[in-house]
Specification:
The protein has about 260 residues and is an alpha+beta fold. The chain has one domain: Deoxyribonuclease I, Chain A (4-Layer Sandwich), CATH 3.60.10. It contains 9 helices and 12 strands. It has helices at about 10-15, 20-25, 45-50, 85-90, 125-140, 175-185, 195, 215, 230; strands at about 1-5, 30-35, 55-60, 70-75, 80, 95-100, 105-110, 145-150, 190, 225, 235-240, 250-255. Strands 3-4-2-1-12-11 form a 6-stranded mixed β-sheet. The protein has a 6-stranded mixed β-sheet with strand order 5-6-7-8-10-9. The protein is globular and about 45 Å long. The two termini are about 10 Å apart.
């Protein structure tokens, strides 16, 4: 079972750049997209209702053209929840919790720590989100549930995860408190699936549009798929698909044995 995550940086824009063709041509069974930046009725029908795919969209209620997550799957989910029981997070359209048999998949757009003027004012909100979601899932982890949390975490974990770590120690996304919040997930037993299989440097998921950074591979790895201990028993591969265009991010994937559902 192939599960993909992709920050599309505007689903309408990504659709104009070939998202639906990519979706139909992929080997994916579940695709979670972040930063859709649109209401469902604003999306073209071909992306709202792609043939042979079940869809679910959760846009931000706080303001139009901001945040939002979407889910595509060839297997119909048993249910999709969108609340993490805290209104300040729910109104920004950040989480979908989909149940597929015994597998729970969370599609998440974690907050960026930068404020409107890149003043780091959103870091407390970001850290609260990290901690709240981790605490919310802990009882399910303790029960041995199979859970994948995937999405744009907006944090590079270690120096290997960005091209210029020394230049970005004060930048949101690589500040110590943000990296510690990510580390808390690993300390709680979650596995960074890509790093489990690959310790190569220069494997990134996001590149700024400025300065031909993608062509020069000056990027950051800020998108992840984390597996709970019970889910990790079924994980057989994970990858980053840097050759897929259409956004300033690229997709990542995690592959699990099909029996994870049952």
């Amino acid at each position: 079972m192939n599960i993909y995550s992709w920050n599309v940086n505007g689903l309408r824009a990504c659709t104009r750049k070939g998202f639906v063709d990519w979706l139909h041509g992929s080997d994916a069974h579940i695709v979670g997209v972040q930063e859709i930046r649109a209401l469902e009725e604003q999306l073209p029908k071909k992306v709202r209702e792609p043939e042979n795919w079940h869809t679910h969209f959760f846009p931000a209620a706080s303001k139009k053209g901001y945040s939002g997550v979407g889910l595509f799957s060839t297997v119909e989910p048993d249910q999709v929840l969108t609340s993490v029981d805290e209104e300040r997070f729910d109104r920004e359209g950040r989480v979908q919790i989909a149940q597929y048999g015994k597998l729970k998949v969370l599609n998440v757009y974690f907050p960026n720590g930068s404020g409107k003027n890149r003043d780091l004012s959103r870091i407390p909100y970001k850290l609260d989100f990290y901690n709240h979601l981790l605490d919310m899932l802990q009882p399910a982890v303790d029960r041995g549930e199979r859970i994948i949390v995937m999405g744009d975490f907006n944090t590079a974990h270690k120096e290997i995860d960005l091209a210029r770590p020394k230049d970005n120690t004060e930048t949101s996304g690589f500040r110590p408190e943000e990296r510690e919040a990510f580390e808390d997930w690993l300390d709680a037993g979650w596995t960074d699936t890509f790093r489990h299989f690959c310790d190569e440097p220069e494997r990134y998921t996001w590149w700024t549009y400025r300065g031909n950074c993608r062509e020069r591979n000056v990027g950051w790895r800020i998108d992840y798929a984390l597996a709970s201990p019970a889910a990790m028993e079924f994980v057989v591969d994970a990858d980053i698909h840097h050759d897929v265009m259409g956004s300033d991010h690229c997709p990542l994937s995690v592959t699990l044995r099909r029996d994870v559902l049952g």
